[in-house]
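Intended use. Records like the one below are meant for learning the mapping from a protein sequence to its folded structure. Do not use them to infer anything beyond what is encoded.
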Amino acid sequence: MKTLSNSRLTIQVSPHGAELCSIVSGGKEYLWQADPAFWKRHSPVLFPIVGSVWENACFINGKTFRMSQHGFARDMDFEPVFESADEVRFRLSDNEDTREKYPYAFVLEIGYRLKGSEIEVMWQVTNPSGEEIHFQIGAHPAFYYPGFDAASERRGYFGFDRTEDLQYILIGEKGCADVKTHYPLRLTEDNLLPIDTHTFDRDALILEGSQVKEVTLYDNDKRPCVTLHFDAPVVGLWSPPGKNAPFVCIEPWYGRCDRVCYGGEFKEKDWMQHLPAGATFRGGYRIEIR
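Structure written out for the chain above:
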């Protein structure tokens, strides 16, 4: 486990999955601590897919590949490649095992940098091959509900950098998206989305099309606690349905699960990233502790 600290934050990152495992500020833990009774992860990186593919099958250049939800990177050991007082970076390259699930060559680097009260999460995907590759990448950080009370239905609020005409879609069959129905995101008079024990009864709320670039988690008294800043075109909001879990996830995605019944080519999936031979993709997001 790698530890970074400054005067505001202390974080820990595991080489397994290059996963952020702890965010402590003012003696308080902000990141979910992976109790398997609810969810066994902290903040996995999703690569080379986000969410599920229909029937767990991908079709690439006329061949069928099997890939489970969110891909394989979160379950692999990364190599530490850089470490300083305020930054750490890890690397994963394709190998024989990854090519059985995903036939492309890649170099994935994941980094974390402290800047005051913010954590900069950095993703870099390089294509070392002579052909175009296709991938998705996303975040899945889980944050404790501030002042969680299991006996209460209230969990807090979400706030956004845009407040008009927001809409979301839901998960349909087999973990894939129902893209036919869009629902309005109904905010309060002060432009917040209340969160309660029923908000995620139908699984994740998915906002796509770059509708928002910031999501803030507020406590029940409408005080801001954590803000995520991102450029990703899709963001998912999720807590395990029906579990009364003490956490919620705010998930910037450069990708999304398949639409229900999708049977097309992998490269034509919704929100797919395309990387030419020899090129590099850079993305990520920032976590601000308020």
